[in-house]
Sequence to fold (641 residues):
Amino acid sequence: MSQTTKRSANEARSLAQAISQVILWGFNKHYRLFRETSALAKDRFERADWHGVQQAASDRIRFYDLRVSETVERIENEFSSSLGDEDVWQRVKFEYVDLLLDHMQPECAESFFNSVVCKLVKREYYHNDFIFVRPTISTEYLDAEPPSYKSYYPLDFRAEGESPATGLRHVFRELITDLDFAVPFANLDYDLDCIERALAEVLPDNFRPLPNHQVQVLRSPFFRNKACYLIGKVINGFREQPFALAIRHERRDSLTVDALLLERDHILTLFSFARSYFFVEMEVPAAYVRFLRQIMPNKPKAELYSMVGLQKFGKTLFYRDFLDHLRHSTDQFQIAPGIRGLVMLVFCLPSFPYVFKVIKDKIASTKDTSRALVREKFQLVKQHDRLGRMADTLEYSDVAFPRERFAQELLDELQELAPSMLQVNDDTVVLRHCYIERYMRPLNMHMQQADDTELSRALIEYGNAIKELAAANIFPGDMLYKNFGVSRQGRIVFYDYDEIEYMTTMNFRRIPTPRNEEDEMSGEVWYTVGKYDVFPEEFKPFLLGNPKVRDVLLAHHGDLFTAEFWQGLKDRIGKGHIESVFPYPAALRFINRFPPAGDEAWAVLRAAENDAAASATATAPIALVSAPLTARSSIVGLSSV
Fold:
């Protein structure tokens, strides 16, 4: 006889209501803290508190797990005698749904419920009757008051006799003013001139405003790193023109509009899976994601939720998409193409654009690492600024796959190399722990099939990627080409994290000059080498074997093979400097695209940038190289402002 039959119906319902209320209490506390730190992003931006930005981004990653643990602990303390009764959990889920009927974040609250219940109910894997495998509460048409986006009507701003485009200029002035920044703009009229000229390049020559002509903008700006972005679209008739307006500090005490992104690919790059999450103050996240999907219709909702800082719900959505894909496909999981890793066993489903990574039980002896250390490295990347150069990962435990979908070769390799991570049942294969990442073509495979122009572009991007990672205090460790991938936009992204270290931990040295002939002829290293010592000259044999590769890398990134470059950058980081990374082509920056009229004005702006750099450090900033561009290439610019 179950405990439920011993209780009255009213007692059982009261117990379920009490547990469900504690779970919702935990979620509401989590989302309140999430909104508070998002709201503070504006203050951090105004004060140019870039170290505070980095710390807040790292701290926020831990918010969710802390609240889940807190909620689990409270339930265990208050209801310990009832947690083993399966009937209770079915009723708890029913009562929880009732609590979410008028909730503003029901989809995220359901995901939080799943996380708590999976900690309390000892199940082998995710799918069971006590959690929300599918969403229960619809978020369609759900919005806040006032609504998530604001509409501006250019015809209301245009004075008689002004050109149609002038109304748009007035609108952009209004929406920038509505941000109510505590820091003034250095030259808003110049910024508006640039906006007007950029719009003129995409609007038809005979542009005529129609009755529905309007500009829709999400109310909350998107903050990340040293920038603020306004996301919106210009509507006229049946045409919609998406845009992202980038605002940055020109100097510490003034702001400037740095760029207006109007191509979807450039906006997609802002929301790339290789970039850190935005800070966005949202009451109804579903409404923000709904608006973003109108601008980026092919972007998965899972990635958009992650990019607005709700990565745990993004993870839930991804898993639902994955299960749906399995139902509509028949191909088998197989070992991923490319060179086999020494630490990870990597497999894929050819019809699904992701790879699955399992840490091996038997790690190659040449790798000085362990499962625990590898997991620490992945967590480091999760909490660090990824700069568009490190792939985001989804971490899962106890994931069940249909056994019939596994190629025998893959199953044999898993059983040989990672048996502790594997449970094979009659119908399922359960992975105790794995990481999932976006699939990218390995750089070494891309290089093998590239023509000379493509090879040059890839290598220049590869060097840029390493320099940007280093500037962000990340030393990749293993810089072999197989550890980098090529994204859809042609960007080079690092995805092998088992050897990464902070730049500030490393000691970059020149190989000492032999003291005598015996040293020079010695087959052994005659000088002392510490655990964190790196000799950049030693990169050459591993990276420059191909003459074509050698010529390109030495011509454009020869400094990567010098200790002075690495040690200088380490010193720069040690002085507290944080580089400015632009997630769009440098050519789109207004200061480059529409230089101010007159040499004097141009000199003043350039001097302001140089003064800002000089005030940060006397060390020169790193220099990135512009690669030959294709229509989909996106080379970031990096400066020391």
Observations:
- The chain is about 45% helix and 15% strand.
- The radius of gyration is 27 Å.
